[in-house]
Amino acid sequence: MIKSVSWGTGATAPERRSPAFNGSGGTLFGMQIVNLLLTALTVGIYYFWGKTRIRHYAHGQMEFDGDVFGYHGTGRELLFGWLKAIFLLAVLFAGAAVLGSLTIGQGPGMPATAPAEMLINLLTFAILAVLMPIVTVGSRRYRLSRTSWRGIRFSFRGRVVEFMKIFIIGSLLTLVTLGLYYPFFYNNMWSYLINNTSFGTKRFTFDGKGADLFRRYVLALILSVITLGIYWPWFAAERNRYYWGHTTFGAARFRSTMSGRPLFGLWLGDLLLLVFTLGLALPWVAVRNIRFLCANLSLEGPLDMTAIQDEAAAASPVGEEMADFLGLDIIGLVPG
Description:
It is a single chain. Helix content is 57%, strand content 12%. The protein is built from 11 helices and 11 strands. α1 (25-41) packs across α10, α4 packs across α5 and α4 (114-145) crosses α11. It is globular and about 60 Å long.
């Protein structure tokens, strides 16, 4: 990896910078075993500190331009965020169940009829459609606010309501078009998430268009059906190259060199490792994927760091813990 001169000297930095991950699957596996034991001994309470410990390790092993990232979250934050998330989810789903039964004319303890059950299912679907944007934005806002590089924090300043409009409208249009609207939907989500992400006082930008990948997407659907899904990694790699290629930071632009055959090999290897080890190889699989992404990603062009100042933003871990509870370990969208 090429190292740049110290920013602040005014000298021109190298034109290309690539991230690198120096962690190991064995270390992550050992940490997970310890976390499982301590979580069991503390009746689940240590889970949040164990989760934070792994993030501290993973961030500290991610290197860019000669410096590693930092993680500043705490187990206490995640614990209280989880308690708030559980309370909110319980209220929402209990309210949906009561409202569904009362709308049909039944009391809250009475057996539900078929129409009542259908209404409850619709209400549950509506709640999930609202929750997904909240979870996505909340998780991204929290994790970025706790991530730093060279002492400067990342942040996400988008509003939940705005992303909710994109998500709900995009989901409905994707549904009524039998999936054909998906490239536009995905592009709109990626655009909103990237254009509202900052490093210190400087924002990232995205200038891609959903129409650019539409024909490729339709072709990928057809070929994936014919090849029983084997062709999909080739489209996923192309989508990865496109989205990163249209993402910039100042005058520097990201570049992805990901291609279909290596991605297919990565996914196949991951599947075999997980199947033949009954899931025990998950830490090694995670490291394989992170290193693969790093090996195929770079930031190219002039990068002036002198004008960037730290601008930390407050963030609650509630959305983060909702994502964890719902099984959605996300920080945003990752193409590919």
